[in-house]
Amino acid sequence: TRVAVLISGSGTNMVSLAKAAQAADCPYEVVLVLSNIEDAAGLQKACDLGIEAVSVPHRAFGKDREAHEKAVHAELQKRDVQVVALAGYMRILTPWLVREWEGRMVNIHPSLLPLYPGLDTHARAIAAGDTEAGCTIHIVTEGMDEGPIIGQARVPVMQGDTPDMLAERVKEAEHRLYPQILSNFVIQSCN
Ligand code: GRF
């Protein structure tokens, strides 16, 4: 299954997806890494892994979100992408793009959804006194950070954790979880 990974930043989840795809028995391949941020650090990481990396800067499209998404979509179609994995893609999608990829787009979110959709998840979990945090992979639907959950991993919140410390622990869990859940997803949805 031909997968594109959409990023906006460091792309560490993208790297874990791409590295897992190197295994002979992995059911997906990462054929494209696309960023809305021209100098996203993850683009260079993709190149280093021998994966085609492109940027489609949203700034060039001003306020016209759909026009930007149409340009993104064209890049995906050009490479015969079958499944899209969002991995730190910091744009809210319009219903248009969501419908185009209905049932074929997944996202990773750094909280135990339905807890803490949106930003600053780790600070919110700490402020709430939670003893557990984690990450969620879900199918993308029109509501932000909603949609059917297809995988979750839990980590403890430790006494004295800062948001950064917790983020790091959750990231390790993300990197283990995403390749595994994406593999399951493509097997179930594409075969
Ligand atoms: C991750 O924490 C992911 O859950 C969230 O954005 C972050 C992306 O990190 N959606 P990276 O770019 O994969 O390092």
UniProtKB/TrEMBL annotation:
Keywords: Purine biosynthesis, Transferase. Catalyzes the transfer of a formyl group from 10-formyltetrahydrofolate to 5-phospho-ribosyl-glycinamide (GAR), producing 5-phospho-ribosyl-N-formylglycinamide (FGAR) and tetrahydrofolate. It comes from Brevundimonas terrae. InterPro entries: Formyl_transf_N, Formyl_transf_N_sf, GART. It is an enzyme of class 2 (transferase). It catalyses: N(1)-(5-phospho-beta-D-ribosyl)glycinamide + (6R)-10-formyltetrahydrofolate = N(2)-formyl-N(1)-(5-phospho-beta-D-ribosyl)glycinamide + (6S)-5,6,7,8-tetrahydrofolate + H(+). N(1)-(5-phospho-beta-D-ribosyl)glycinamide binds at residues 11-13. Belongs to the GART family. This is Phosphoribosylglycinamide formyltransferase. (6R)-10-formyltetrahydrofolate binds at residues 65, 90-93, 107. The record marks 145 as: Raises pKa of active site His.
